[in-house]
Amino acid sequence: MSLAGGTLRRIGLDHNPLRRPIDRVEAWIVVAIVLSFLLIVPATVWLAGRTAYTTGLHNEQVERLHRYRVHAVLLADAGSDTVTDAPVRGAAPTRTGTTTGVRTPARWTSPDGSEHRGVVLADERARAGQWVAVWADTHGDLTDPPQQRVQTWVNSIAAGALAGVGALCLAGVIRLVVRRTLDARRMAQWEEAWWRFEPRWTGRS
C-alpha cells in the first residue's frame, strides 16, 4: 500500500465499503480542522508575538523617558534596616555589578530635586555614606528598571507560544465536540437499524 493510500485509510477517506457516510463526514471534518490549524496557527503565533514585541518596544521607550537612575546614599551600614515589611524596589547594579544585596536605609534625590528616604539593596560590605545605584520615577519613588530588550523578546516569544497552545487546545475541543456529536448520531442510526432488522432475526413481528 502506498503512503497516500495508507494515509487515506487512517483518516477514513479510503474506499472501504464498511465505512458509513457519517464516518466519511467525520473524516472530512478532521481534515478541515487540520488544514485550518496549519494555516491559522502560524499566523496567530506571528500576530501575537508581533503585537507583544511592538507593545514591549513602546514600554521600553516610555519607561526610559520616565525612569531615572539615581545614587542613593546609605544612611547606615548594610543590613541594619529594621523595617521588615517595607518594599524594596529600584534595584540596579551596584559598583560590584550585582542587583542583589541586603536591606539598608538610604536617601536619594529625585530628578525634580526633592529628597527621599527609603530602603534599598546594598552589598553586605557597604558602609554608611557609600552610594548604590537605584531607579526612581519622576516623583522620586523607587521603581523597577526600564524594560530591557531581552525581556521584550522573552515576552513576545511567550505570547506567540501561548497563542499556539491556545489554538491547539481550541482545535482539540472542536475535534472532541465533533466526535461526540457524530458518535451520538451513529448510536441513533445503529439503534434505528437494530429495531428495523431485529424482528427478521428473532421472528418477532
Automatic annotation (TrEMBL):
The chain crosses the membrane at residues 27-48, 153-178. InterPro entries: MT1774/Rv1733c-like. Coiled coil: none annotated. Residues 85-115 are annotated as: Disordered. The keyword Magnesium does not apply. Keywords: Membrane, Transmembrane, Transmembrane helix. Residues 88-107 have a biased composition (Low complexity). This is Transmembrane protein. It comes from Planosporangium thailandense.
